[in-house]
């Protein structure tokens, strides 16, 4: 995919774009029934694939990250999981061939709503087909085939990426040896469906959304900002904000005297972070990937969650949860671990006590690195 | 205030409107410095004031309720706290003279943004002065004076109403004997400020808000609906929704086939409840009262929360919290009780184990009635 086709894709020297040639005839059949005639994935990789092609790890991302999970000689800027991936790190690129793709449906170079529909020559926009977590996993499967990998050493994912890792293991039993699921869920439950549904409705209520057919010049930035703020509220934990912001107020010179203006530092924090986000993320990608998470339900792969989990055939899984995560709470991590065990999977289950809520995996190097490192080190010992 | 002055005020035979004649000269001076020249409160009452005028209880409401807290012969429709207030009930109207007013700043008959500004002959709209929890408490104080009450037997409030009860006790030390605070807070903390700030920004982002000067015909209903949905998400607890909705989907005949349409029952529940609300509540009232809660900080009444609490002079206080309340969490209830005790107030502190989150006080008759009944019964024994 060329840059001019997609306003959001950024290409660094480290980002490669690959058109999946190994798709079945007619294109990629999606989990909910629609079809994508062509799929391009933007990905980065670190380390080298060994001769036996048995040292590959795929990293699945949450909703918004790009393929740039870590720095590399080609692109020294820090990636979104910089502390986790690199030479000698938990995901050790001296040992493993590590691949991270921008999600199918995303906007950082992989085929998504802002990509050109080959049938029309215009961007898909809201005519992009329904994409699911299963499809993100499948696109990762095809990507690894293109890269010469038959069987993965491991799939590692956090948040939506954890769902994708599990979906990979269920859909391709025996084709992955180790599975890492961090702050994920076996199925979306009402609170998270409600929060995401509300975020989507906020975006769709912005007149500039224009039923999904907006121009680059007039995107629903107001709706995106509000939706992102709601996301930020759900990603963090109350206590961290209490200690970080308490009731701190903006300095008087930043106040305008307008009624209802931002007055507390927490309001400013949300505004700052929302503004950082909205200019780089495609609203339609947000809608599609958000909905994908609502739909995710392992029970669709069997008669029940256990029925779906029973399809998994890995040597071992690592399941990690965070005490203060309100979006993907500990009980859902325990459920993943318990049901995996009940269906015959060997599981390491770790609860991490962090104040950083759902975002902890992006922040807490000191908690997460040792856990993931131990698991992956043992996988090759 | 006559009905025609306020599109939202509903008058039943039980609702009375009283213009506060006992205000200081120049009107009511508000906590943040502005002034209201005239204040009318809509209220209802139950039971009779006794000869000594020492059996009066004021009920302070949360953000949205009207004065119609309970049914009466004049208006037999159930009130918003029907289980709590009535003959023989926890707030026993055989024994007490019970008064509930629509909050100052509200839209159900009390002076608020949709009221006529006597200086202009038009509604205040977004030119209404900043109103605070302290002012709501003070307006209740003036109301009770108008009704012939010098010293209250008790102030009872939940959520914002609990804050108002505490503000009453701090501002009028010795003029209230018993204090009941349910699911309140000594000060607003970042998570709740963030959620409310976001709700307000959602309303203000609706083009129909029109900087607060909208017409009855064109109100920001879309923004109100989204803000209300966010409120509903925060008022309830995840586990209750899990057991009530799980991943239930709408029946096929209710689906339109449109992308991103409501598909899960939880989405329909939010839509239904938002629609019920938005046609009866004034968006500007929502903004003002929401901001009032952000501003509430007992520490403004002293050098610290303890400094503010030290002003309280009651015979006893009841502080109640709910295990699953994420908006006004238990730790904030414990804080109220602990600091009150440390500053010399006798406190009964009760934690209620309920699945209903912040809304529990509206629902859990079987949990709340015995606690409040015991406290008030003992107050007259």
Descriptive report:
Two copies of one chain form a homodimer. Chain A is of the alpha/beta class and 381 residues long. Chain A folds into two domains: 3-188 and 295-379, Rossmann fold (3-Layer(aba) Sandwich), CATH 3.40.50; 192-289, Orthogonal Bundle (Rna Polymerase Sigma Factor, Chain: A). Chain A is built from eleven helices and twelve strands. An eight-stranded mixed beta sheet of chain A has the order 1-4-8-5-9-10-11-12, sandwiched between helices. Chain A is globular, with a radius of gyration of 20 Å. Chains A and B meet through helix 3, helix 4, helix 5, helix 6 and helix 7 of A and helix 3, helix 4, helix 5, helix 6 and helix 7 of B.
Short description:
Two copies of one chain form a homodimer. Chain A has 381 residues and is an alpha/beta fold.
Q: Please outline the major beta sheet of chain A.
A: 8 strands, mixed
> Percentage of helical residues of chain A?
25-40%
CATH architecture of the largest domain in chain A: 3-Layer(aba) Sandwich
Order of helices and strands of chain A: EEEEEEEEHEHEHHHHHHEHEHH
- What is the multimeric organization of the chains shown? homodimer
Strand element count of chain A: 12
- Straight-line N-to-C gap of chain A: 40 Å
Average pLDDT of chain A, to the nearest integer?
Answer: 95
Q: Quickly name the level 1 CATH class of the largest domain in chain A.
A: Alpha Beta
| Spans where pLDDT lies below 50 across 5 or more residues of chain A | 1-6
């Amino acid at each position: 995919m060329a840059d001019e086709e997609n306003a959001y894709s950024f290409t660094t020297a480290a980002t490669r774009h690959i058109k999946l040639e190994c798709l079945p005839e007619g294109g990629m059949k999606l989990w909910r029934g629609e079809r994508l005639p062509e799929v391009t994935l933007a990905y980065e990789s670190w380390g080298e694939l060994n001769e036996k092609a048995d040292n590959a790890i795929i990293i699945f991302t949450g909703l918004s990250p790009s393929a740039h999970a870590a720095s590399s000689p080609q692109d020294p800027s820090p990636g979104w999981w910089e502390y986790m991936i690199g030479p000698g790190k938990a995901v050790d690129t001296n040992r493993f061939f590590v691949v991270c793709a921008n999600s199918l449906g995303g906007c950082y170079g992989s085929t998504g709503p802002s990509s050109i529909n080959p049938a029309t020559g215009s961007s898909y926009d809201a005519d992009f087909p329904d994409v699911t977590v299963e499809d993100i996993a499948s696109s990762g499967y095809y990507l690894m085939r293109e890269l010469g990998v038959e069987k993965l050493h491991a799939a590692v994912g956090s948040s939506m990426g954890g769902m994708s890792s599990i979906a990979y293991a269920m859909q391709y039993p025996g084709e992955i040896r180790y599975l890492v699921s961090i702050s994920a869920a076996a199925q979306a439950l009402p609170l998270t469906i409600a929060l995401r549904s509300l975020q989507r409705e906020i975006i769709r209520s912005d007149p500039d959304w224009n039923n999904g057919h907006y121009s680059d010049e007039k995107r629903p930035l107001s709706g995106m900002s509000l939706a992102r703020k709601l996301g930020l509220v759900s990603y963090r934990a109350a206590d961290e904000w209490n200690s970080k912001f308490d009731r701190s107020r903006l300095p008087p010179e930043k106040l305008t005297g307008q009624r209802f203006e931002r007055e507390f530092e927490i309001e400013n924090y949300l505004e700052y972070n929302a503004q950082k986000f909205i200019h780089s993320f495609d609203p339609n990608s947000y809608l599609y990937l958000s909905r994908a998470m609502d739909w995710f339900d392992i029970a669709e792969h069997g008669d029940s969650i256990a029925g779906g989990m029973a399809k998994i055939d890995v040597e071992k899984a690592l399941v990690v949860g965070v005490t203060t995560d309100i979006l993907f709470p500990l009980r859902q991590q325990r459920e993943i671990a318990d049901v995996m065990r009940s269906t015959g999977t060997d599981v390491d289950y770790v609860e991490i006590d962090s104040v950083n809520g759902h975002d902890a995996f992006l922040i807490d190097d000191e908690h997460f690195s040792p856990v993931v490192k131990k698991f992956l080190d043992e996988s090759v010992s």
